[in-house]
Amino acid sequence: MTSLARAIRTHRETARSRRALLDAIRGASTQSARDDLVMAMQRANARS
């Protein structure tokens, strides 16, 4: 796999994960669940 293909795949996977987390945050039933998901998203963004 070329580096360009790898970069495209990584970008798509990151975008998919971000959308899934945002959907989970919107659908969270309680504020504490939302806060936990926001913190998870912040941790994920800090690693990238």
From TrEMBL:
This is Uncharacterized protein. It comes from Flexivirga alba.
